[in-house]
């Protein structure tokens, strides 16, 4: 390769996914032998803040100059980058996280694979490229996320890579991760085909206890086998996450499922395996976790509601009208009825996330939807026409809603 003639290579996920026979949604490129000036002269638009990245003038795809990086401080911000026309493609690929992400194709379509990424694809292994992996704690999160994404294809984390992650946790590297970055990776992992694998990988290397200690402490906590044949509270949460993915739930639902049982982690030992009151105990834990990461409002609000009311939803047909109305108003469903479907979907994932009960129907969702419909049908107009004012109208509407819910409960034909 001439040092004066820039070369362009397709790199990263597009190369990997094409070898796996998966659809390629976006492509990234590395340019070897170029300078920022030569890129702008060709019409590329610079967008990189920390290192030279450019957008193609027509396709809008990212083209990065080949670069190396060096660790200069703790945490994932502690890097300095060096981009130069003398940096080789292999040097650029060496700084990447996993071997399956460290492959490239040249302009003729030939595969360049200096770290045996294709062999690891064939073996279904997620393996680090070099010991430089330990310099960036975000790579543990990315590793766990790739494991969650590719678990259906049979991928697993290589033993030496898992050992390296444990060393990173033990050395305190993970402590440097800030909440915003943890949430970015968690949100992507929760939407993966196997989100429970993300949690398992983090737990195996010890990172879960650092990043999500409220979730980590659920493992080993027993539950009554009559209701939870899987026994372990942590395993139940992972089974519920599997169900949320199976139900194709969106992000707020999956997050709510992840945290809905946090209260079980602080049940007094003398009360185990029962968890009376775990719903109320879990609410402040969810609130604190949401503030620490921080979690978007939609995810936080649903998680708080699911945590507080999921057991009532499971027993919906047994609830007195007053209790059912408090559930509906507690979810703010009269003003925001769109919340109800997400709430019941999270409850369904929880209900079905139990050993041997994965395919059990959940008619409670239809019953709660009908309860909300009947409450919404109560209109203030007749009470205004009767001469009621102010709080009198609200009280009358509440009584009418309670009567409607009592009729629902008495109807033997109502699903639930």
Order of SSEs: EHEHEEEEEHEEHEHEHHHHHHHHHHHHHH
Largest sheet: 7 strands, mixed
Runs in which pLDDT lies below 50 for 5 or more consecutive residues are none
| Strand coverage percent | 5-15%
- Largest sheet: spatial strand order: 3-4-5-2-1-8-9
Q: Estimate the helix proportion, in percent.
A: 40-55%
Beta strands, count: 11
Arithmetic mean pLDDT = 93
Which key features would you list for this structure?
single chain; alpha+beta; 11 strands; 48% helix
Summed up, what is this model?
This protein is α+β, with helices and mostly antiparallel strands and 416 residues long. Helices cover 48% and strands 9% of the residues.
Description:
The chain has 416 residues and is α+β, with helices and mostly antiparallel strands. 48% of the residues lie in helices and 9% in strands. The strands form three sheets. Strands 3-4-5-2-1-8-9 form a seven-stranded mixed β-sheet. It has a two-stranded antiparallel sheet with strand order 6-7. A two-stranded parallel ribbon has the order 10-11. Helix 13 runs antiparallel to helix 14 (297-314) and helix 15 crosses helix 19 (391-410). The termini are far apart.
């Amino acid at each position: 390769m001439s040092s004066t003639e820039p070369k362009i290579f397709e790199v990263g996920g597009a190369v990997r996914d094409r070898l796996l026979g998966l659809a390629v949604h976006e492509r990234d490129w590395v340019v070897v032998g170029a300078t920022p000036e030569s890129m702008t002269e060709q019409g590329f638009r610079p967008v990189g803040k920390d290192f030279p990245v450019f957008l193609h003038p027509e396709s809008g795809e990212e083209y990065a100059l080949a670069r190396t990086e060096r660790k200069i401080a703790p945490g994932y911000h502690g890097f300095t980058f060096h981009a130069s026309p003398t940096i080789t493609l292999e040097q650029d690929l060496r700084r990447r996280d996993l071997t399956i992400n460290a492959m490239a194709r040249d302009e003729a379509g030939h595969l360049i694979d200096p770290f045996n990424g294709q062999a690891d694809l064939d073996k279904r292994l997620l393996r680090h490229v070099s010991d430089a992996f330990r310099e960036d704690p975000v790579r543990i999160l990315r590793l766990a996320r790739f494991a969650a994404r590719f678990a259906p294809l049979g991928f697993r984390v290589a033993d030496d890579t898992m050992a390296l992650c444990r060393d990173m946790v033990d050395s305190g590297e993970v402590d440097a991760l800030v909440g915003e970055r943890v949430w970015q990776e968690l949100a992507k992992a929760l939407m993966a085909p196997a989100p429970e694998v993300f949690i398992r990988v983090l737990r195996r290397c010890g990172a879960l206890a650092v990043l999500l200690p409220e979730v980590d402490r659920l493992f080993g906590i027993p539950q009554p086998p009559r209701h939870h044949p899987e026994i372990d509270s942590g395993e139940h949460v992972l089974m519920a996450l599997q169900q949320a993915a199976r139900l194709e739930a969106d992000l707020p639902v999956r997050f709510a499922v992840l945290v809905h049982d946090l209260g079980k982690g602080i049940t007094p030992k003398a009360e185990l395996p029962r968890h009376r009151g775990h719903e109320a105990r879990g609410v402040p834990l969810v609130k604190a976790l949401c503030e620490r990461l921080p979690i978007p409002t939609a995810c936080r609000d649903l998680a708080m509601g699911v945590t507080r009311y999921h057991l009532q939803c499971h027993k919906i047909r047994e609830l007195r009208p007053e209790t059912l109305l408090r559930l509906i108003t507690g979810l703010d469903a009269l003003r925001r009825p769109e919340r109800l479907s997400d709430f019941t979907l999270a409850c369904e994932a929880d209900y079905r996330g139990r050993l041997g009960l994965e395919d059990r129907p959940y008619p409670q969702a239809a019953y709660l939807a009908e309860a909300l419909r009947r409450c919404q049908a109560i209109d203030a107009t007749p009470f205004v026409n009767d001469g009621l004012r102010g709080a009198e109208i609200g009280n009358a509407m509440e009584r009418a809603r309670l009567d409607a819910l009592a009729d629902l409960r008495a109807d033997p034909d109502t699903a639930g």
